[in-house]
Design a protein that fits this description.
Helices cover 30% and strands 28% of the residues. It is of the alpha/beta class. α2 packs across α3 and α2 crosses α8. The protein is globular. The termini are close together.
């Protein structure tokens, strides 16, 4: 079968198409004929070697996949054969025509949701639904969503708007801000412009925001933190800039704000599974629309990584083997 290997750690061109044997499912595993494989920012960190514990090369990259079950390992329910599913490979083997998924990480795709849409919601959907559960947007309150044109950001805009919040979408470029507007954002600010915090203050009448979904870090994250009104909440779940958010000792207590580290919270596998199912349920009900901004053939995985690193993508990026 065709697959994409990380031949060595480095730039996108280290991703190379190869022919490898079909994987064979072991006990508690299924073989999935991959129709869609998710590409996420973390994949670029693994490929470049900047993600701790990436392991030796070469290896086939990829975690989230969707497709049909074509073979079963011992102890697996025969009723899964032929069913459309999504699941996590554990971080290896997803950029391929066929991939192994453990049944504990497997979710059946409900009728009425396409496999690509379901794949787009597997990781980003569970992240977004978990974030709004940790920090529920309040009706009438201002919620700032960073990276609002990305996979998680587009979902957060929808979920926060559905909760009645006045969503301020922060992203770079007109296209991403216009997209956020179609998803329910009340206003948009281009955070590649130095005056974007002033624009947020104008939108809120000088009050600031009650909630920030922070995924950028660095100067953007710091500016967003400064925009929090007393009693406000910030959930930190990324640092796309490469620099973590800087919080001064005692600052949260002094200002009367709450800063939640998403990754410091316990996220048991079953809780993450329930969050993915919840996102699928929202999509089935028509309340959540995954935005698949770009798709690539499997052989062009390097181009997908280049686009993500250049910040030119919108919504979710998928490989379609």
């Amino acid at each position: 079968m065709r697959a994409i290997e990380v031949t060595r750690f480095g730039p996108p061109e280290v991703l190379r198409p190869v022919e490898v044997p079909d994987p064979v499912p072991g006990p508690g595993q299924v073989l999935v004929e991959v129709q869609a494989a998710a590409v996420v920012f973390a994949d670029t960190l693994v490929r470049s070697g900047t993600m701790p514990g990436a392991g030796p090369t070469p290896f086939v990259l990829g975690n989230g996949v969707g497709g049909a079950v074509t073979a079963l390992g011992d102890g697996v329910d025969p009723g899964l054969l032929g069913r459309p599913v999504i699941g996590s490979t554990g971080g290896r083997g997803g950029y391929a025509q066929r991939a192994l998924v453990g049944t504990d990480a497997l979710i059946e795709v409900p009728d009425g949701v396409s496999v690509p849409d379901a794949t787009a919601l597997l990781a980003d959907g569970r992240t977004a639904t978990t974030l709004v559960r940790q920090a529920p947007p309040r009706p009438g309150g201002y919620a700032l969503v960073e990276a609002a044109g990305g996979g998680v950001g587009t979902l957060l805009v929808q979920l926060a708007a559905a909760a009645g919040a006045m969503v301020i979408a922060a992203a770079s470029g007109v296209a991403k801000l216009e997209l956020a507007g179609t998803l329910g954002a009340h206003a948009g600010v281009d955070y590649s412009r130095p005056d974007w915090p002033e624009r947020v203050r104008e939108v809120t009448g000088g009050h600031g925001v009650e909630l920030v979904f922070e995924s950028v870090g660095g100067a953007v994250g710091r500016a967003a933190l400064d925009l929090l009104a007393p009693g406000g909440r910030m959930v930190v779940f990324g640092r796309a800039s490469g620099t973590p958010l800087r919080l001064e000792p005692g600052e949260a207590e002094r200002r009367g704000i709450t800063v939640i580290d998403f990754f410091a919270q316990p996220h048991p596998p079953e809780a993450l599974r329930r969050a993915s199912v919840a996102a699928l349920d929202e999509a089935l009900a028509g309340r959540l629309r995954p935005v698949i901004g770009q798709t690539y053939p499997l052989e062009r995985a390097a181009e997908a990584h280049e686009a993500i690193e250049a910040r030119t993508t919108t919504g979710k990026t998928l490989l379609l083997p």
